[in-house]
Description:
Oligomer: single chain
Helix content: 40-55%
CATH class of the largest domain: Alpha Beta
Mean pLDDT: 89
Number of domains: 2
Strand content: 5-15%
Largest sheet: 5 strands, parallel
Amino acid sequence: MQSKQLSLIDFLIVGASKSGTTSLASHLNQNKGIFICEPKEPKFLTYSFRKNKYRGPGDDRTLNNCVKSTEEYLQLFKEASMNSCKGEASVDMLYHHKKVIPIIKEQIGDPKIIIMLRNPAKRAFSAYSHLIRDSRETLSFDEGLAKEQERLQNGFEFIWAYKNEGYYFEPVKDYLENFTNVEIIIFEDYLKNQQRIVNTTLNFLGIQETHHIGKGLQNLSGKPRHKFINDFFVNESTMKSFIKRILPDKLKYGLKNFVQKRNLQKLEPENELIDILNKEFMNDINKLETLIEIDLSIWKA
């Protein structure tokens, strides 16, 4: 690899999945000083060591959407102005921290890193609901957890790591030790005051003016009432690409959120299973709390 050949990239939103990164990225991208590529998750930096590890149901769709060459990756940023702060949000980079951090340092250098974290038990169920939405998961949540290790050993992509992705301490520690500027956002805090968190993040990225957020895109999960409607938003098509090009972001985000909120039936986990998972995560949560010096008592309630 040629050293620092992607040095135009200023920041990376590295994860965790189902923790508000889609919403945050869409809000940041509304600021004229920020450019986040489309798609927001090109997964280029993990593709070199994950290209043969998309073997689960529907994983081929993720693989097809991966950016596979440096030239293609650079093309994602061709519309960015020279002075804009450029970034992307492939959220598999937190889970695959051991292998991707050396690639980031070699290819990009020392970009600013944004990490969003959510109660790991609730994040796990949200990931499960995401795969239910896309007709990829057919088991119950309990059965999916029981199958997790087998699936990962068989080369399923990281979204199937319901429980494993929730052990945040080691990956967060790895990023803190390898990069100069790391911003950590707690999903539950973000939900309480998105305006404040967006402006704090813009300041972290070097954008000083106050930005009043508009409608942002949400990556909603749940069981579709009408599968054909959900398939339109999930699958790529010529019609979908055309609509995305001609609609302004505010209208595009509003339309997608409006339709999906009405088409997706929210799934509720069994409280007993969430309690069991919370207990399993507690030691990791306590270590993380000490590491990042952020009160995580909301995850312990």
